[in-house]
Specification:
Layout: H1 2-76, E1 87-100, E2 114-128, E3 131-139, E4 144-155, E5 159-167, H2 185-188, E6 195-205, E7 208-218, E8 235-236, E9 238-239, E10 256-271, E11 277-290, E12 298-310, E13 313-325, E14 337-342, E15 345-350, E16 352-362, E17 375-387, E18 395-406, E19 409-419, E20 450-464
Antiparallel strand pairs: 1-2, 1-20, 2-3, 3-4, 4-5, 5-6, 6-7, 7-10, 8-14, 9-10, 10-11, 11-12, 12-13, 13-16, 14-15, 16-17, 17-18, 18-19, 19-20
Length: 465
C-alpha cells in the first residue's frame, strides 16, 4: 500500500518534472513565435507605406517626363519671333535741375536752385526694305524747333544716303568728343551736333569710313521769340539791335548778321588695330550777309580727332581750327565777332580760333548689386576756345559727372566749371558792351570762372513700333 502510494507519488513527481522540462523547452519557441508575428506585422505596414510612397514618386516622375517632353517639343519647334513694324514712334520727357553762380535773385541761385520741365519731344523712325528715315520735333519752355527730318536709303554695296535736316559729319562722333549734357565748346561754335538742310552719304571701305555731304542752308528758324535763333544747333544768324539797361542802343539797328549759303563736308575715320579710330574732318561754306557786306564771306574748319580704348577707359580727343571770314565793317564794329544763335538766343562768337577738346569715360563700374541702376559711366571733359584776337580772353569749359541708365530713364549728374560759356553761370542777360559779356564764347571780357551743378533726367518712351 505504501509502496503503491510511493509509486503514485513518484509518477506524479515524474510527470510534473517532465511537464516542467517540456514547458521550459517549448516556451522559447512560443515567445519567439509571438515576436515574429509582431515583427511580420510591422514589416507589412512598412512595406505598405513604402509602396504608397513609391506610387507617389512614380506619379511625379511621369508628370515630370510629360512636362520635359512638352518643353522639348516647343524648343525643337521653329521659334516665332515678333516682326517689328517699319515705323516706330516714340519720344522723350525731360526735367532739369540747376544751381550755380548767377545773379543774386536769379532762380538758379535762390533756394538751392531751380527745377524746370526742360524738354518734350516726339520722334518717328522708318526702316523698311532699305528705306530709312527719322523725324524729330522738340518743345522747350517758350520755344520749339524741328531737330531732325530726313529720308534715306541704306545699301551694303552703295552705302547710306540721307536727305533733309541731317547731322553734319564733323569730329569723332555725333556729339564730337562729348558725353556731357553741356557738350564741349565745339558745339557753341557750330562744329558738333550741327543740324543743317542737305544731303549726306556714308560708306565703309574695310576699316575706312567716309562721310561726304553738301548742305544748302542751316535748319531754319522755327517757333520762338528771337528773330532767327529758335533752332537746336548753333549757326550764324541775324539779330536786332542790343539795348542796354538804360534803354540805349549799343550797336547797329535792324536785321544784321549772316546766314549759311551752301556748305561742303568731308570726314574720314580709319579703325586701326593698336591706335584706335583715327580721323580727320573738313568743312567749307559760304555766308550771305543781311545788312552786312558779304563779298568773299565764307567759313572754314578742319579737325583731327581720335577715339582710343584702354581697358575700361575710352578717351576721345579732338583739335580743330575754324574761321568765319567776314568784313570788319559790321554794325557791331568788328569782324572778329560774328552773331550765332540757338535755343532762342543769339550772341557774338569769336570768329577765329583753335579748339582742343578731351573726354575720358570709364565703363568698369559693376552695378549688379544696385537694383535701380543698369549702368553708370563717370566722365571728365575739358575744352577751350583759343581765340586769334589777342584782346579776347579764351573760353574754357570743364565737365565732371556721370551718365546713369535705368531701363528707359537716363540721368546726367554733373558739375560744369567755365570761364566763357553762356550756360554755366552769369551775371545777367543784358550787357552794356559787347566786350563785357559774362561767361560767353565771344570776347569774354569778364574773364571770370563760374560753376553750375546740373541734374538732367530724361524718360524715353515708345508709342508705337
Amino acid at each position: 500500500m505504501l509502496r503503491g502510494i510511493n509509486m503514485m507519488n513518484n509518477n506524479n513527481t515524474l510527470t510534473l518534472i517532465c511537464t516542467l522540462i517540456l514547458f521550459l523547452l517549448l516556451s522559447p519557441f512560443a515567445i519567439a513565435g509571438g515576436a515574429v508575428e509582431d515583427e511580420t506585422e510591422a514589416l507589412k505596414q512598412k512595406i505598405g507605406h513604402l509602396e504608397q510612397e513609391l506610387a507617389e514618386v512614380r506619379k511625379k516622375l511621369a508628370e515630370a517626363e510629360a512636362q520635359n517632353a512638352a518643353q522639348a517639343a516647343v524648343s525643337e519647334a521653329p521659334a516665332v519671333q515678333p516682326v517689328p513694324g517699319p515705323v516706330k514712334i516714340g519720344g522723350t520727357f525731360g526735367i532739369n535741375y540747376a544751381y550755380g553762380d548767377y545773379d543774386s535773385g536769379h532762380r538758379r541761385n535762390e533756394d538751392l536752385g531751380d527745377v524746370d520741365l526742360e524738354l518734350f519731344r516726339l520722334n518717328a523712325d522708318l526702316d523698311a526694305d532699305g528705306w530709312i528715315g527719322r523725324v524729330e520735333y522738340r518743345w522747350y519752355d517758350t520755344y520749339s524747333m524741328m531737330h531732325t527730318a530726313w529720308l534715306g536709303y541704306a545699301s551694303d554695296r552703295y552705302g547710306t544716303l540721307k536727305a533733309g535736316i541731317v547731322r553734319v559729319p564733323f569730329g569723332p562722333g555725333p556729339y564730337g568728343v562729348s558725353t556731357s549734357w553741356f557738350f564741349d565748346q565745339h558745339f557753341y561754335i557750330g562744329l558738333s551736333d550741327d543740324m543743317d538742310l542737305g544731303i549726306r552719304w556714308t560708306k565703309s571701305y574695310g576699316d575706312l569710313e567716309v562721310d561726304l555731304a553738301y548742305y544748302l542752308q542751316d535748319e531754319g528758324e522755327w517757333d520762338g521769340a528771337s528773330r532767327d535763333s529758335s533752332r537746336y544747333s548753333y549757326d550764324p544768324v541775324t539779330w536786332d539791335e542790343h539795348v542796354d539797361a538804360e534803354g540805349d542802343v549799343t550797336w547797329g539797328a535792324g536785321e544784321n548778321g549772316f546766314e549759311e549759303d551752301g556748305q561742303l563736308n568731308l570726314r574720314m575715320i580709319y579703325a586701326t588695330e593698336h591706335f584706335g579710330d583715327l580721323g580727320a574732318s573738313f568743312q567749307y561754306g559760304w555766308l550771305e550777309g543781311k545788312n552786312v557786306e558779304d563779298s568773299g564771306a565764307d567759313h572754314f574748319a578742319v579737325s583731327a580727332h581720335a577715339e582710343n580704348t584702354f581697358g575700361d577707359f575710352t578717351l576721345l580727343s579732338q583739335l580743330s581750327y575754324y574761321e568765319y571770314d567776314i568784313t570788319d565793317d559790321t554794325p557791331w564794329g568788328t569782324g572778329d565777332l560774328i552773331p550765332m544763335g540757338a535755343y532762342d538766343f543769339a550772341w557774338l562768337v569769336a570768329s577765329e580760333g583753335w579748339i582742343p577738346a578731351v573726354s575720358l569715360r570709364y565703363h568698369g563700374i559693376d552695378t549688379s548689386g544696385i537694383p535701380w541702376i543698369d549702368s553708370i559711366m563717370p566722365f571728365i571733359e575739358w575744352s577751350t576756345i583759343l581765340k586769334e584776337e589777342s584782346d579776347f580772353n579764351d573760353s574754357t569749359l570743364w565737365s565732371l559727372g556721370a551718365l546713369m541708365y535705368w531701363d528707359q530713364l537716363y540721368i546726367y549728374a554733373e558739375l560744369g566749371i567755365s570761364d566763357g560759356n553762356n550756360f554755366v553761370g552769369g551775371e545777367g542777360d543784358v550787357y552794356s558792351n559787347i566786350y563785357d559779356g559774362v561767361g560767353d564764347v565771344g570776347a569774354n571780357g569778364n574773364d571770370r570762372w563760374n560753376k553750375r551743378f546740373n541734374i538732367n533726367v530724361r524718360y524715353y518712351f515708345s508709342l508705337f513700333e
